[in-house]
Amino acid sequence: MTLEIKNLHVSVEGKKILNGINLTINEGEITAIMGPNGSGKSTLSYAIMGHPKYKVEKGTILLDGKDITNKKTDERARKGLFLSFQYPNEIQGVTMMNFLKTAVNSQRSKPILFSEFKKLLDKNMSMLKIDQSMLRRYLNEGFSGGEKKKSETLQLAMLKPKYAILDETDSGLDIDALKVVSNGINSVAGPNIGILMITHYKRLLNYVKPNKIYILIGGKIVYSGGKELADHLEEKGYDWLKEDNKLQ
Ligand code: ADP
Ligand code: MG
Predict the structure, then answer these.
(1) Distance 122 CA to ligand 2 centre (A)
(2) Intervals of the chain under pLDDT 70
(3) What domains are there in the chain, each with its CATH number?
(4) DSSP per-residue string spanning the chain
């Protein structure tokens, strides 16, 4: 099973950002996309999720062979697609507890028993070292950078999607929180999920090992390789690839 992105061209507010992305995310694998700021990483994640501002000009997105290019975001979510945001929204008036329960139930035909839900929640919260008091707070409101990323990772662990796109889950985390969040991602990873990790830095990839790395620059995949590519980038930065890109 795969999430396939074929020749994807995307514009935002009339500005062309992605210029023909080809990418396959396999179930059971971790795929990483790295790239400098402004290269279009978040645009790609929004486009895959179906954000209305991100207009697909050309190309297709196939989820297990089915064309979802023009489907609404909630339908994509019901089909098992999940996006963890680089900048999670604060949602006033909705407690974290209610949000998670609603999200879990939206994927089921019958609502989950509260006792079953709470057991799963407690297990995942202790894994992510999230304090119980956070459940009564409004979603992401006043959360620190690290708390927001843990909250996103908790959603991932509770929803267990078929394909997860994690946009800069490592940004704003100190080393302890980075380890906790990485541990959370690793516990969700497995044969029944395809993960796309988007990151600017190598450090997350020290803890969550990708099967393949793609490099996105200027809205195009300019290079791909195995996990050793991350070491190379750490040492050399992205500039050598930019030069390559200009020659093409
Ligand atoms: P990255 O995540 O790799 O840093 P982004 O996808 O956020 O890159 O941004 C790529 C380009 O698209 C940038 O030039 C950015 O300004 C532009 N862009 C992204 N989203 C929007 C938006 N909602 N409105 C206007 N420009 C946008
Ligand atoms: Mg981004």
Answers:
(1) 31
(2) 243-248
(3) 2-45+55-244 (3.40.50.300)
(4) -EEEEEEEEEEETTEEEEEEEEEEEETT-EEEEE--TTSSHHHHHHHHHT-TTEEEEEEEEEETTEE-TT--HHHHHHTTEEEE-SSPPPEEEEEHHHHHHHHHHTTSSSPPPHHHHHHHHHHHHHHTT--GGGGGSEETTT--HHHHHHHHHHHHHHH--SEEEEESTTTT--HHHHHHHHHHHHHH-STT-EEEEEESSSGGGGTS--SEEEEEETTEEEEEE-THHHHHHHHH-SHHHHHHHHH-
